[in-house]
Design brief:
alpha+beta; 5-stranded mixed β-sheet; Serine Protease, Human Cytomegalovirus Protease, Chain A; 3 domains; 354 residues
């Protein structure tokens, strides 16, 4: 993307484009929704969605994220910490005009990027989520209900807790003119009262803006009833990721004729090594010669001299690469080479004399 400009004109264009498009913007892992950045298995899954974009004069662009369970697990496990926006830039003056996507990353390109808000864990610095304590959450909702009623703010008939929270968020966001200033003085006073209550209950800094208060309130209600991702959820997710990566690695060497998927024992051993130590797996398979030479369209002659040469070469290859012993034994390696050359497997006598 290179260098780009974000000023008042740019910020306004980005917000307008987001609102006019009417579609949530994906938050992915390491920009996987961008061409050429997909995961090894070809996937480009979202871990969250940008549901609101707003600008604060003199401060910058902000987004409200609705995280899915996978995103929450990665952030709360402290595996990812920053957001990196992908912006569509106008060629004539390099002004950013539209938000394409946002990547969850560990090395953001933008200097001074703040840590993602959802990574602020309960009982640490920053936002203290009340959802860990149902009594505390209900107290906050009760305070908001009383404030909204006092200010004459309407709440949806089927309101309940979520309706009250949403009414509070809408009041905090308020209506603004083209310069970002509130257009209704009464609404401004209502928002200040609600912001003050939420700051106190969520433990926010006294100077937190109303947009920041709205974001914190949204995160609080989003995590209500769900709590933090459990250790078992994190473990299961990591295991699934390892398995997918192992399958991708093995598929690469099956495609290059270095691994025989039909040899169930060898393939299972290869999968196990790829899961537990991908780097060692790559070294082992990288040192393995193809079972069938690329480009061969006809089976090689099965003359005894050729067969004997293939057996000897395969046995020598096994002896020269000790790491192969972690995938199979000497006989199995030779049998695999023979199968790849469309030759009969060794007899028990040949195997014993190997």
């Amino acid at each position: 993307m290179g260098t780009f400009v974000v000023d008042d004109e740019s910020a306004s264009a980005i917000v307008d484009a987001f609102e006019s498009h009417g579609v949530e913007v994906p938050v992915d892992i390491d920009h996987q929704t961008m061409p050429g950045h997909a995961a090894p298995d070809g996937s480009a899954r979202a871990v969250g969605w940008i549901v609101q974009v707003f600008a604060e004069p003199g401060r910058g662009l902000f987004g409200m994220v609705r995280w899915n369970d996978r995103g929450k697990i990665l952030i709360r496990a402290d595996e990812y910490k920053y957001l990196s926006p992908v912006l569509m830039v106008r060629a004539s003056d390099r002004r950013a005009m539209r938000l394409h996507s946002v990547g969850l990353v560990n090395v953001p390109a933008i200097s001074g990027m703040e840590a993602v808000a959802a990574s602020q864990h309960p009982n640490t610095e920053g936002i203290t989520m009340p959802s860990d304590n149902p009594v505390e959450l209900e107290r906050l909702v009760g305070e908001l209900r009383a404030l909204l009623k006092e200010k004459g703010v309407e709440i949806a008939e089927d309101g309940g807790r979520n309706g009250i929270i949403q009414a509070a968020i809408d009041t905090l966001k308020g209506k603004k003119d083209d310069d970002g200033k509130a257009t209704d003085s009464k609404a401004t006073g209502d928002a200040k009262a609600i912001a003050s209550s939420v700051r106190t209950r969520l433990g926010l800094e006294p100077g937190a803006s109303q947009n920041e208060v709205a974001l914190a309130l949204s995160l609080a209600i989003d995590s209500a009833g769900k709590g933090d991702a459990s250790a078992s959820e994190l473990s299961a997710m990591k295991a699934a990721d390892k398995a997918r990566h192992a399958e991708t690695l093995c598929a690469k060497y099956v495609a290059s004729n270095r691994l025989n998927k039909n040899d169930t024992e060898q393939y299972a051993a290869a999968m196990a090594l790829a899961r537990e130590d991908p780097d060692r797996f790559e070294k082992v398979m990288g040192a393995t010669k193809p079972l069938v030479q690329p480009g061969r369209t006809t089976a090689p002659a099965a003359a005894s001299t050729q067969r004997g040469t293939m057996i000897a070469n395969a046995a020598r290859e096994f002896d020269d690469n000790p790491e192969l012993a972690k995938l199979c034994n000497r006989v199995d390696h030779v049998q695999t080479a023979l199968r790849g050359g469309n030759m009969a497997k060794m007899s028990d006598v040949e195997a014993k004399s190997l």
